[in-house]
């Protein structure tokens, strides 16, 4: 049997070539002026499952959180509607990271989703007027403000299939059998809003595209974020800081435009189940490529940097889950100027209770990386139109 059809391969190659062309355009034009780590709050991830597996779901994401990891995976959800919530506190509660997402099936081949992400630091002291006009310290003049970053993502996914006639051979004859290869495509249109009290605001717009497919049991995915570059227009309230900055010798900011360059993630995963279908194991691999200059990653260069991640998930009857992952490999310089590698191990558990899915993850377990550990909790609620109608009927009967 000729398993990998030339037409199927051509479709995959054409999609990869399209992404490469779109990525190369903004990267080559603005790479020198684009800052590193722009909109980096969108690189954290959503959902305790994906974070426990070190951000490898690009190939297997199949629920509402796929809108973030790879919108193509939205079509693989088995439920008509999904709602997900997540909360994380970072740096001892100084920073809060929140996510909410909702997805709905239009029909068997089309699905939409809407997601909101917020990363913020609240109650930052505003010490501009700590010292009054007489030179005295007056703590009553100290106010507070919040620095927050928001992302609003509108997602659409569509399922397709390639019907290909392939040669099949038996002992008696050779014939052509028609086979279907699934291809899932997805895209995000996202609006970015950032604010720092009364001092600065910005608005930006970007586009992500993704694809998932499956060859036998191998699941393959590709996700291209900020495919044409995401442009954030910053507006500064110079009057709010002019006097203080002038007295302290700081530069007064002016309105500017910040560009977030594309990043591409490739993913491969392989699920396996026992013959009685009670136990399952899935291994996953991700490879993220950034184009904003040399980063502290395993493979780094002036044009691109590559960061690998690994994840594993075991389950019992698709009800109880154990997860683990490793990523964030970085080379650090010790006090004696020697260099060593650090990594970030993550672990998590999950449980399905009727229509509810509860997931937990601990990131950077055992403090192996330079970043502190964090506890991640997320909840998913799965429901369909029949359940909604039943709730309506129950409500009407109770009146």
TrEMBL record:
It comes from the Bacteria. Keywords: Signal. Residues 1-31 form the signal peptide. This is PorV/PorQ family protein. It comes from Bernardetia litoralis (strain ATCC 23117 / DSM 6794 / NBRC 15988 / NCIMB 1366 / Fx l1 / Sio-4).
């Amino acid at each position: 049997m000729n398993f990998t059809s030339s037409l199927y391969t051509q479709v995959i190659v054409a999609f990869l070539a399209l992404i490469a062309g779109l990525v190369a355009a903004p990267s080559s034009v603005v790479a020198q002026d684009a800052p590193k780590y722009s909109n980096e709050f969108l690189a954290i991830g959503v959902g305790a499952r994906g974070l426990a597996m070190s951000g490898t779901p690009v190939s297997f994401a199949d629920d509402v959180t796929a809108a973030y990891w790879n919108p193509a995976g939205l079509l693989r959800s088995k439920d008509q509607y999904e709602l997900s919530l997540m909360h994380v506190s970072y740096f001892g509660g100084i920073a809060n990271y929140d996510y909410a997402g909702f997805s709905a099936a239009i029909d068997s081949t089309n699905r939409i989703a809407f997601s909101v992400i917020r990363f913020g630091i609240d109650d930052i002291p505003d010490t501009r007027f700590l010292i009054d006009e007489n030179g005295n310290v007056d703590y009553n003049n100290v106010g507070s403000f919040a620095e927050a970053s928001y992302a609003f993502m509108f997602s659409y996914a569509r399922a397709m299939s390639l019907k290909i006639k392939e040669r099949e051979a038996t002992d008696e004859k050779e014939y052509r059998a028609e086979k279907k290869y699934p291809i899932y495509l997805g895209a995000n249109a996202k609006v970015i809003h950032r604010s720092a009290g009364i001092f600065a605001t910005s608005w930006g717009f970007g586009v992500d595209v993704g694809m998932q497919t499956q060859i036998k049991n191998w699941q393959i995915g590709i996700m291209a974020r900020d495919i044409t570059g995401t442009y954030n227009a910053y507006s500064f309230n110079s009057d709010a800081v002019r006097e203080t900055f002038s007295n302290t010798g700081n530069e007064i900011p002016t309105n500017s435009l910040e560009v977030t360059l594309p990043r591409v993630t490739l993913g491969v995963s392989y699920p396996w189940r026992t013959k009685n279908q009670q136990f399952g194991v899935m291994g996953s691999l991700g490879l993220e490529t950034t184009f904003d200059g040399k980063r502290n990653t395993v493979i780094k260069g002036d044009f691109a940097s590559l960061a690998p991640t690994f994840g594993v998930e075991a389950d019992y009857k698709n009800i109880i889950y154990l997860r683990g992952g490793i990523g964030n490999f970085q080379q650090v310089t010790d006090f004696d100027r020697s260099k060593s590698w650090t990594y970030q191990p993550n672990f998590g558990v999950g449980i399905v209770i009727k229509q509810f899915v509860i997931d937990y993850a601990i990131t950077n377990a055992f403090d192996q990386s330079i970043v502190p550990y964090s506890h991640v909790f997320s909840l998913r609620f799965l429901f369909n139109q029949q359940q909604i109608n039943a709730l309506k009927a129950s409500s009407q009967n109770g009146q």
